[in-house]
Amino acid sequence: MSDHSEAPVAPVEAFEPPYYAAVFTTVRTGEQSGYSETNARMEDLVKDVPGFLGMDHAQTPGGLGITVGYFRDTDALTEWRTNAEHRAAQGRGQAEWYQSYTLHVAQVERSHGFVRGEALRSPTVG
Question: Which of 17, 83, 109, 119 has its CA 20 to 30 A from that of 53?
């Protein structure tokens, strides 16, 4: 994924379930021309999807990248999956930027959060 060092370090907040998590795990190739610009555009574009809740990123020193996008419902996921610019970026990712990737989509049934100095936020079910 891109270098997110300038962004504040904090996880996406807990939301009232159910909602969906799309977990995109990647290993990139050595060819990254245009990746940062496209990644930044995708991050801006997904924010316009009604039902998009937020996104977390992590990158290991060994090159494993993980992006988790959170969506209120399957309509939001479908809108993102079928967005024309996103589809074009996916094609370029397969052709140039990714050695391998996996995508896992799951329904979130429990969610809670913790921030030091604040009360536990727990919009959990069960």
Answer: 119
